[in-house]
From TrEMBL:
Pfam families: ParA (PF10609). One of its GO terms (biological process) is iron-sulfur cluster assembly. ATP binds at residues 45-52. The lineage of its organism: Bacteria, Bacillati, Bacillota, Tissierellia, Sedimentibacter. One of its GO terms (molecular function) is ATP-dependent FeS chaperone activity. This is Iron-sulfur cluster carrier protein. Homodimer.
Length: 273
């Protein structure tokens, strides 16, 4: 048994005596040089609610708390992680596998945009090809000594997210939502899917929850009152954070400076994850 054993054979490639394998599952083995302790999927019911922002913020926050962190951008048709971290170089290989790119503060990142010649090229691929690419990000990328690997999941509950859930050993999911959605329905769908896939729900992040006036500090519910507290209570889920609408957030993502954002709203995240 490896001295780094975390008792989770699905995220380890060691062929040790204590290896337990379920022959019926579809899980892919990670690259043999990878060592990932925890895989966390970030999901949303629909596009544009801030799933990529929350993935980036969770990674930045845990990196600041002293953990080794990676982001696997599984949102192949809408990859926005490299841009928000300001990464323009391309990923390289070393003869054994593909190496993730490192952000300024050391977050390891793999995304389709780090492989495309021109990152404005659209990915016009069928579902199985997209799902196959995500699998390769797990099996052929060397994730070396990662404490937390955050997966920016493809949106929705279709073929691609299903394959990702079945092939990458996700330890838990974070659900991102926003008040203008039909929160209870969207969260309920995510909860049911997680139950079907047997994946624990770590908690919910409500993005674009309110706007704080910079002049008078008053909070305005731009999208109306949300039902998130009741929904969380009825499913016994934790609310990890409520994030404001803040032009600084959009500007930081656009300028590749997500690593400079304030993480105080994710205060106790290290204990929750
Ligand atoms: N709280 C916020 N305040 C201001 N801007 C925000 C906030 N959250 C997200 N944005 C901006 O909204 C846009 C969409 O966010 P993001 O890319 O994170 O959404 P997404 O759910 O990942 O979208 P998709 O599903 O299309 O990939 C980005 O430009 C981002 O900077």
């Amino acid at each position: 048994m490896s001295e780094n054993c975390n008792s989770n054979c699905s995220s380890c490639s060691q062929e040790c005596e204590s290896r337990k394998e379920d022959k019926t599952d579809f899980m892919e083995k990670p690259h043999k040089m990878s060592n990932v302790k925890k895989v966390i999927g970030v999901v949303s019911g629909k596009g544009g609610v801030g799933k990529s922002l929350v993935t980036s913020m969770l990674a930045v926050t845990m990196q600041r708390r002293g953990h080794r962190v990676g982001i696997l951008d599984a949102d192949i048709t809408g990859p926005s992680i490299p841009k928000s971290f300001g990464i323009t170089e391309k990923a390289k290989g070393n003869g054994y596998g593909i190496l993730p790119c490192k952000s300024k503060t050391g977050v390891e990142i793999m995304s389709i945009n780090l492989l495309l010649e021109d990152d404005t090229d659209p990915v016009v691929w069928r579902g199985p090809v997209i799902a196959g690419t995500v699998k390769q990000f797990w099996t052929e990328v060397i994730w070396n000594d990662i404490d937390y690997l955050f997966v920016d999941m493809p949106p929705g509950t279709g073929d691609v997210p299903l394959t990702v859930f079945q092939s990458i050993p996700i330890d838990g999911i974070v659900i991102v939502t926003s008040p203008q959605e039909l929160v209870s329905m969207i969260v309920e769908k995510a909860v049911k899917m997680a139950e079907m896939m047997n994946i624990p729900i770590i908690g919910i992040v409500e993005n674009m929850s309110y706007f704080k006036c910079p002049d008078c500090n008053k909070e305005y519910k731009i999208f109306g009152d949300s039902n998130i507290d009741n929904v969380a209570k009825s499913h016994n889920l934790k609310i990890i954070a409520k994030l404001p609408i803040d032009p600084k957030i959009a500007a930081s993502c656009d300028r590749g400076m997500v690593e400079l954002l304030d993480d105080s709203l994710f205060g106790n995240i290290a204990e929750i994850l």
